[in-house]
Amino acid sequence: MQHPDEGTIHAWVDGALTAEEAAQIDAHVKDCAECAAAVAEARGFIAASSRILTALDNAPRGVIPAAAPAKRRLDPMVWRIAASVLVLAGGTLVVVRNQGTRGTQETASTLTMDTSGSVAAFNARVESTHAEAAKPNPSIGNRVDLPTLTVPSMPKPAPTAQKSAAPSGGAPARRVAQAPAPASVSGFLPRTAVVASEGVAADAAVGSGEPLKVIGSPQRIGANVTLYEIGGDTVTLAESRPVALSGVVGSDAAAARMQVELRGKTAATRNNVVGQAAGAAQPVAAQPVAPPPPVAAAPVEDAARPEDSNVVHTISWVDPVTRNTLTLSGRMSEARLQLIRLRIEKERAAAKKTP
Amino acid sequence: MTDVERLFRTYNTALVRYLTRRLGDRDWAEEVAQETFVRALRQTSIQNERAWLFAVATNLVRDEARKDSRRRKHLALLAEQERESVVEPEETGLERAQEAAMARKAVDALAERDRLALLMREEGLDYNEIAEALQLSPGSVGTTLSRARRRLVESYEALQKDGEAREKHAAS
């Protein structure tokens, strides 16, 4: 027979030929040295290629991205932890920035105010009349209202704060007073979370992009007066050096009432200031909110009425560094004034840093 | 045991190895193998199971495997069980990594038909099955295989010589 070709030899070695064909090749190879060598070579190629192909079996996984298996989803716990870290970081940032603007002492009192804990005190405030909601509290001021607003709406704190801060937002003060069961929420939340929520809300509202413009600084004896324009509204900031107090005046009637109330409370406020200066563990706001004195319980003009934003409101506070009293007034709600106050403090701090 | 489970247990190892050698990626290979068994599920009858499976797998590689995650889940579970029973080769050392790289190059240098025929043969497919899977005439499979083996070994040896020459050059 003719010498079989290489393909046939491979087929013979692979046992792919019929019995008849195989017998013919078998007989030929026995007598043909050339074909015997070809058979030996074929066996060598078969063994070698098997060995070479075996080297491919240690192929890595996921070499081709398109074919890679679905990515493992992160454990929800990981997301929770990440979210907490973010919130904490946000809160810390706000605290640090506050330190820059208001000083450490003020920051400490702000922290305590938010969480002073005091579910009972908070309940007392919530359960009191609308007039009480608008009643000025010299030691706490309106700042407490920010967490009140933001805590019940933890997922979206900023819009809530902004909404209530908007002049056309109806009756923000009333909303504050009627906020549903926030006491239990704030009591349940860890301190840092409450602080952070306030920080985030206030920060978002203040930094909401409304341009703050100084439109004048009229001369007034004993005070530096600056007129600001923000979002189409005009506010007046007066810086003077009277007795240390911080308070909120909701309306003319409330202002009159406040004068009465302050007379009785000045001593307590002074004590608080002394305690703060001495580094006492309980800053001003840690003092439980005193139940409203009888004189304040008398029905006064409801500051939370719808035309609230059309009345001139004034908020005052003491600069912890200079001890100067700052008074901010404008024809808008108190909540908005508070936000503008934060904004102005930020601007002033920035101006101090880069004179 | 359902029919597809039997098919899977009988052919999965060989099919994955074939595909791994073909694709160079174990995950991809397993994915295509699973898709192949999913396709087998839809088939009412298969004449030559092994040839059919290898042919479908080969076509899937060509056409990009489609996903069928629900059914694949069950097969992935079976694969998991199977993997546990198979002793994975030890981590490759540098020398083995070099061998693998050269083998990959040599295999990639082959013509597609030669490469597939060779890989199928390595998984035990007979000439008729290879012919069926690759739509060749049975008489040409021997020629295809002999050419593939010779070229593979020659390319590999050439790469080996290149590597040795480079090592010598680096040493001198």
Helix count of chain A equals 15
Extended strand count of chain A: 7
Q: How much of the sequence of chain A is in beta strands?
A: 5-15%
The percent range for strand residues of chain B is under 5%
Account of the protein in words:
The complex is a heterodimer of chains A (355) and B (172). Chain A contains 15 helices and seven strands. By secondary structure, chain A is of the alpha+beta class. Chain A has two domains: 6-58, no CATH class; 94-353, no CATH class. In chain A, strands 1, 2, 3, 4, 5, 6 and 7 form a seven-stranded antiparallel sheet that branches. In chain A, helix 1 (6-13) crosses helix 3 (33-54), helix 4 packs across helix 12 and helix 4 packs across helix 15 (334-353). Chain B has two domains: 1-88, no CATH class; 92-172, Winged helix-like DNA-binding domain superfamily/Winged helix DNA-binding domain (Arc Repressor Mutant, subunit A), CATH 1.10.10.10. Chain B has eight helices and no strands. Chain B starts with a helix and ends with a helix. With 172 residues, chain B is an all-alpha fold. The longest helix of chain B has 34 residues, at 138-171. The mean pLDDT of chain B is 85. Chain B is flat, with a radius of gyration of 18 Å. Chain A binds chain B through residues 5-11, 14, 16, 42, 44-46, 48-50, 52-53, 55-64, 67-69, and chain B through 17, 20-21, 23-29, 31-32, 65, 89, 92, 96, 99-100, 102-104, 106-107, 118-119, 121-122, 126-127, 140-150, 152-153, 156.
Short description:
Chain A has 355 residues and is α+β, with helices and mostly antiparallel strands. Chain A has two domains: 6-58, no CATH class; 94-353, no CATH class. Chain A is built from 15 helices and seven strands.
